[in-house]
Amino acid sequence: MEKKSTCETTDMICHRQVLFSLLLAAGIVLSLPWAVGADADYTDRVNVFLGTDSSAQCSPAAIRPLGMISPGPLNRTNAPCGYQWRTKELIGFNHTHLQGTGCGSYGVLVLLPTTGNKELGTMVNVPPHRQVAQPGYYRADIDQMKIRAEMTCTRRAAIHRYTFPTSDSARVLIDLSKGVHWAGHKPGSMRG
Length: 192
Known about the structure:
- There is one protein chain.
- The protein has two domains: 6-32; 46-175, Distorted Sandwich (Beta-galactosidase, Chain A, domain 5), CATH 2.70.98.
- The protein is elongated.
- Strands 6-7-8-9 form a four-stranded antiparallel β-sheet, with no helix packed on it. A two-stranded antiparallel sheet has the order 1-3. It has a two-stranded antiparallel ribbon with strand order 2-5.
- A hairpin with a 2-residue loop joins strand 6 and strand 7.
- The protein has one helix spanning 6-31; strands spanning 72-74, 89-90, 92-94, 110-114, 124-125, 131-134, 137-142, 147-153, 158-163, 171-175.
- It is an alpha+beta fold.
- The mean pLDDT is 80.
């Protein structure tokens, strides 16, 4: 039997190493996250309810990056952002939620879709499991009145959609008397 020269053995080993290196490099390149493509949507992985309980001072309100408005729920006027996850009653929906400020932030315009003879100051029952939120979107189902409230936003405007049951008494209450944390109001009237 003829013994192979060390050159032939070395060349074969070199070819195997090059082939292995090329296959390894191709596998790494194809498995990189950017190889998925620019169309990947990761918003379904975001939990906007994180930080909304206790004193974490966050809200699940809809907001865009660098947006000027964030429509969402108001259920606590003594919480800096106006929201606390465990609270089952809802005061209404407002347009300004600052995240993690540590202090109250200005007065708020509160909207509350209702049916029947509800008055200002009425709180409605909306437990946490009847609220849905994702980046840029918030929804609450007010079961006792069969109303669905949905909110989203552009950079400078809030968009609300209220779905009411068939009723002659469907309306939206506007409450100007609420403030978050430190703001107050004086009784009065307005004519126009």
